């Protein structure tokens, strides 16, 4: 039975690494996975999922206005597909999460999503909120704060390394822009204490 999965975490927890490893496992067993990533995140190149540890794979892209039910259906019509993997799933719209949930239910294909849970202000991304509501199974991918506790939050840094307290929810970046922290150290960084 196909399911919708949401694997979530903070920045730099290894979401893309876990996705690439799972897709590789399908390929090793002779099954064909279909990989997608957000078009707006092109840090590794457009249509590329890459990990900080150096592994990567080409992927199809999606944008905010695309009908993902139709995209999945079109992909399934081209040949075998054992599983769909979506990286940067926090960039999905609420409507797109409903579309992929429909694809799971009506087309019988498992879809594994990987993304952030919250932004640098501690707010859920719309795609993540919908995935938390609709997913059949959820898994937290953990990383640690500099103190050794589990990191559940992330701060955004400006060009001078100062903690930003406001701004657009979406700003694509990596280690130079974001730092994962436990809630206590996030509060201290955001409140300046």
What do you see in this structure?
- By secondary structure, this protein is of the alpha/beta class.
- It has a single domain (4-141), classed as 3-Layer(aba) Sandwich (Rossmann fold).
- The protein has five helices and ten strands, in the order E-H-E-E-E-E-H-E-H-E-H-E-E-E-H.
- It has a six-stranded parallel beta sheet with strand order 5-2-6-7-1-8, with helices on both faces.
- Helix 2 runs parallel beside helix 3 (94-107).
- The radius of gyration is 17 Å and the shape is globular.
- The N and C termini lie far apart (50 Å).
- The model has no long low-confidence stretch (mean pLDDT 88).
Task: Supply database-style keywords.
alpha/beta; 193 residues; single chain; 23% strand; six-stranded parallel beta sheet; Rossmann fold; globular; two-stranded antiparallel ribbon
Instruction: Please state the structural category.
Output: alpha/beta
Per DSSP, what share of the residues sits in E-state strands of 2 or more residues? 15-25%
Output the CATH topology: Rossmann fold
CATH class: Alpha Beta
Radius of gyration: 17 Å
User: Helix and strand string, N-terminal first?
Assistant: EHEEEEHEHEHEEEH
How many beta-strand segments? 10
Number of structural units classed as domains: 1
Overall, the morphology is globular
How much is the average pLDDT?
A: 88
The assigned CATH architecture is: 3-Layer(aba) Sandwich
Strand ordering within the main sheet: 5-2-6-7-1-8
Give the biggest sheet.
Answer: 6 strands, parallel
Helical content, roughly? 25-40%
Distance between the termini: 50 Å
CATH homologous superfamily annotation: P-loop containing nucleotide triphosphate hydrolases
């Amino acid at each position: 039975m196909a399911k919708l999965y949401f694997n979530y975490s903070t920045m730099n927890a290894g979401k893309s690494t876990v996705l690439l490893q799972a897709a590789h496992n399908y390929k090793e067993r002779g099954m064909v996975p279909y990989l997608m990533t957000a078009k707006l995140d092109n840090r590794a190149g457009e249509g590329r999922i890459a990990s900080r540890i150096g592994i990567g794979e080409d992927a199809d892209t999606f944008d905010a206005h695309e009908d993902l039910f139709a995209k999945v259906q079109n992909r399934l019509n081209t040949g075998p597909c054992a599983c769909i993997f979506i990286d940067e799933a926090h960039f999905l719209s609420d409507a797109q999460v409903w579309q992929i949930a429909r694809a799971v239910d009506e087309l019988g294909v498992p879809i594994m999503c990987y993304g952030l849970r919250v932004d640098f202000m501690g707010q859920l991304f719309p795609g993540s909120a919908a995935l938390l509501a609709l997913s059949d199974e959820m898994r937290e991918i953990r990383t640690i704060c500099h103190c050794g506790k589990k990191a559940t939050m992330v701060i955004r840094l400006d060009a001078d390394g100062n903690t930003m307290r406001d701004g657009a929810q979406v700003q694509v970046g990596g280690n130079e822009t974001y730092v994962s922290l436990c809630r206590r150290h996030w509060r201290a960084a955001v409140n300046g204490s």
